[in-house]
Design a protein that fits this description.
The chain is α+β, with helices and mostly antiparallel strands. It has 7 helices and 3 strands. The chain has one domain: Arc Repressor Mutant, subunit A (Orthogonal Bundle). A hairpin with a 2-residue loop joins strand 2 and strand 3. Helix 1 packs antiparallel against helix 4 and helix 3 packs across helix 4. The radius of gyration is 14 Å and the shape is globular.
């Protein structure tokens, strides 16, 4: 039951759902997620840790950056099902639409160097 609860807990926060939705389109570093959501870096890092523990996101290092992407869901059946469902859900949400539009203007070099 723990993997199920971990997945549901990770998806119980609107900002974590927003992170999942933006990562459907592009892998992002913490600075880019922070810029899109308007949250503190420490808050974004905590969100990312919970999503990672739930098997929803994975990361890789690229120099000094940590780049996050959605997992393939193979580690957790619950994560795989929820990622699949979320890809079809909330696509008409105005706030998510605004974030997707803003994402094209996010410049990692400029944002993360500040």
């Amino acid at each position: 039951m723990k993997p199920f609860i971990r997945t549901m807990k990770a998806l119980s926060d609107p900002n974590r759902v927003r992170i999942i939705k933006v990562l459907e389109n592009k892998e992002l570093c913490v600075c880019e997620v922070q810029n899109l959501l308007g949250l503190a870096q420490s808050t974004v890092s905590k969100h990312m840790k919970l999503l990672e523990e739930a098997g929803l996101v994975d990361f890789r290092k690229d120099g000094s950056w940590i780049i996050y992407q959605l997992t393939d869901g193979e580690e957790s059946t619950y994560a795989k099902v929820m990622l699949s469902n979320l890809s079809a859900w909330l696509n008409d949400d105005p706030q998510l639409h605004e974030m997707m539009t803003k994402m094209s203007q996010v410049d990692q070099e400029r944002i993360c160097a500040a």
